[in-house]
């Protein structure tokens, strides 16, 4: 078996939006630069989406270990050559812009995501199966999201990105998403909780550090925990679930916390008033529920393996980003 890098990225570029429908062109993102750039800070630029600024990173080739041709997929052959140099057979590609929600408006959200999927599907189709990609569904319209899953599967997608906090105004285990999970199971597309947030936040970038954990790693972990707690893997017994870029040290704690809640339910204390269903946890929480977790090489893997199992740990380099 070859080496699969389970978490890589692209940086969106102007070509990403060339697949928008004619009726959607008014929503096409534009690039802007600070009016008065600070010479003491790194260069900055932004996407303008729905009248608001979203960071469009200016990356250093040296620091990222990539080139603009490879990270924006301007040259697919160059990215494949770099993969050869790294000893990587297959990359699974996630977005950059869409890790944080850029707009509250369903029509703009859908237009951006559909164009992104078609652009990335087109670029990855030129890789001979070595570049695989994860679909961005327009979840504010669940029927459109289901339709987009079908299109993505037909065009080489290998998974679906889902946020673990509120997305489309709803939490991951709410019944609203069940048709979406049913279709993902049918198409054999895993639900991938990548770090990031489905709740739009247009506050200053300088404020990001104050809620960074809550809006990145904690959100992804919450997504997995919510599906386990509300028995989504039991409802969809072939559905696979991923937790991407949040590390794996959280897994023993989640295992402990859910089992402790189960013990409380079996005693005199009820948690039903909090909306927590009666828990009946599997002997191996992650293996038996088909949960796959990206780990970091400097984590305490022998300890984590006691809870997760070797077959349910995967590795991603965060290629393009600076992990």
Explained architecture:
This protein has one domain: Metal-dependent hydrolases (TIM Barrel). The chain is built from eleven helices and eleven strands. The strands form two sheets. It has an eight-stranded parallel beta sheet. Helix 5 packs parallel to helix 6. The mean pLDDT is 94.
Please specify the SSE layout and strand pairing.
Blueprint: E1 4-9, E2 30-32, E3 46-49, E4 52-55, H1 61-64, H2 68-71, H3 76-86, E5 90-94, H4 106-124, E6 131-135, H5 142-154, E7 157-162, H6 178-187, E8 191-194, H7 212-215, H8 217-229, H9 232-235, E9 241-244, H10 250-266, E10 291-295, H11 301-308, E11 313-315
Parallel strand pairs: 1-5, 5-6, 6-7, 7-8, 8-9, 9-10, 10-11
Antiparallel strand pairs: 2-3, 3-4
Helix pairs in contact: 5-6
Q: Which class of secondary structure composition applies to the elements?
A: alpha/beta
Elements, N to C (H/E):
EEEEHHHEHEHEHEHHHEHEHE
Amino- and carboxy-terminal Cα gap = 25 Å
| CATH topology heading | TIM Barrel
> What gyration radius follows from the Cα positions, in whole Å?
20 Å
CATH superfamily placement = Metal-dependent hydrolases
Number of helices: 11
Instruction: Count every beta strand, where a strand is a DSSP E run of 2 or more residues.
Output: 11
Task: Calculate the mean pLDDT score and round it.
Answer: 94
Number of structurally distinct domains: 1
In short:
The chain is of the alpha/beta class.
Task: List its salient traits.
323 residues, alpha/beta, TIM Barrel, 8-stranded parallel beta sheet, 3-stranded antiparallel beta sheet, globular
């Amino acid at each position: 078996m070859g080496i699969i890098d389970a978490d890589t990225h692209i940086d969106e570029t102007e070509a990403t939006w060339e697949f928008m429908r004619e009726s959607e062109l008014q929503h096409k993102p534009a690039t802007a630069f600070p009016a008065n750039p600070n010479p003491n800070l790194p260069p900055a630029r932004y996407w303008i989406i729905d009248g608001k600024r979203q960071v469009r990173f200016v990356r250093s080739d040296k620091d990222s270990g990539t080139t603009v041709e490879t990270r924006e997929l301007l040259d697919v052959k160059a990215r494949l050559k770099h993969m050869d140099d790294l000893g990587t057979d297959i990359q699974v590609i996630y977005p950059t812009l869409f890790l944080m929600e850029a707009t509250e408006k369903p029509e703009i959200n859908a237009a951006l995501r559909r164009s992104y999927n078609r652009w990335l599907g087109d670029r990855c189709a030129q890789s001979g199966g070595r570049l695989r990609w994860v679909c961005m569904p327009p979840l504010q319209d669940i029927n459109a999201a289901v339709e987009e899953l079908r299109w993505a599967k037909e065009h080489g997608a290998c998974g679906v990105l889902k946020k673990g906090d509120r997305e489309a105004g709803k939490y991951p285990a709410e019944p609203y998403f069940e048709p979406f999970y049913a279709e993902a199971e049918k198409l054999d597309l895993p639900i991938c909780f990548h770090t990031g947030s489905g709740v739009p936040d247009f506050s200053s970038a300088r404020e990001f550090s104050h809620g960074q954990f809550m809006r990145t790693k904690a959100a992804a972990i919450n997504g997995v925990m919510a599906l386990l707690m509300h028995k989504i893997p039991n409802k969809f017994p072939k559905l696979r679930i991923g937790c991407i870029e949040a590390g794996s040290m959280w897994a023993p704690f989640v295992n402990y916390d859910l089992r402790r809640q189960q013990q409380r339910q079996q005693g005199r204390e009820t948690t039903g008033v909090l909306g927590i269903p009666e828990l009946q946890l599997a002997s191996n929480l992650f293996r038996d529920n088909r949960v796959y977790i990206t780990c970091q090489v400097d984590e305490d893997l022998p300890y984590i393996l006691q809870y997760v199992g070797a077959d349910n740990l995967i590795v991603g380099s965060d290629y393009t980003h600076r992990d």
